[in-house]
């Protein structure tokens, strides 16, 4: 005689409605964080930008920059996986109030878009822009 299996019981869980809420459902549960660009992970930045942008960036773009502009280049991590990046440079002006942040690249891999990763990367840059720079106190 064939064995009878007990009926499966599933825990109830919330169901997102529509594609926008699916993404916010994922975003709420994911760990979105940032990492410094270091000699150890600069290769990941190369690979991300090769996938994201049609032009090949010169190696100088990736050279690990000085401490003052370190907050301006970051990898965006989705559950610790690098899926996006922001790379900016600081453009000097005659004084600190005229410094500008130039965004060279900002990109997120297609499957990870609309989860707030670019927003997190941009906010990070604005929050960590050098003290006294044009962004200080503007948020
Ligand atoms: C532009 C880009 C970086 C956005 O990354 P992202 O992580 O998806 O952005 P976010 O999730 O933080 O989106 C923030 C808001 O931007 C707007 N937005 C983002 N992508 C959008 C799109 N394709 N169409 C319309 N609005 C968009 C939305 O208002 C979004 O908020 P919402 O999802 O709550 O509606 C990403 O689409 C990308 O990598 N594109 C290709 C590279 C590129 O063009 N980079 C910019 C030039 S360097």
UniProtKB/TrEMBL annotation:
Keywords recorded for this protein, A-Z: Acyltransferase, Transferase
Domain annotation N-acetyltransferase: ranges: 32-139
Gene3D superfamilies cross-referenced by the UniProt entry: 3.40.630.30
GO CC term (a single one): NatA complex
SUPFAM superfamilies linked to this entry: Acyl-CoA N-acyltransferases (Nat)
Keyword hit for Transferase: yes
Protein name listed in UniProt: N-acetyltransferase domain-containing protein
Source organism: Malassezia vespertilionis
């Amino acid at each position: 005689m064939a064995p009878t299996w007990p009926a499966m019981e599933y825990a109830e869980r919330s169901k997102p409605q529509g594609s926008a809420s699916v993404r916010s459902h994922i975003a709420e549960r994911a760990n979105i964080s940032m990492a410094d660009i270091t000699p150890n992970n600069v290769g990941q930045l190369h690979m991300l930008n090769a996938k994201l942008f049609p032009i090949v960036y010169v190696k100088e773009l990736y050279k690990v920059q000085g401490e003052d502009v370190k907050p301006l280049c970051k990898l965006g991590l989705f559950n610790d996986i690098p899926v996006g990046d922001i790379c900016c440079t600081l453009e000097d002006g005659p004084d600190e109030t005229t410094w500008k942040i130039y965004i060279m690249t900002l990109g997120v891999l297609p499957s990870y878009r609309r989860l707030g990763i670019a927003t997190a990367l941009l906010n990070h840059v604005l929050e960590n822009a050098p003290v006294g720079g044009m962004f200080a106190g503007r948020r």
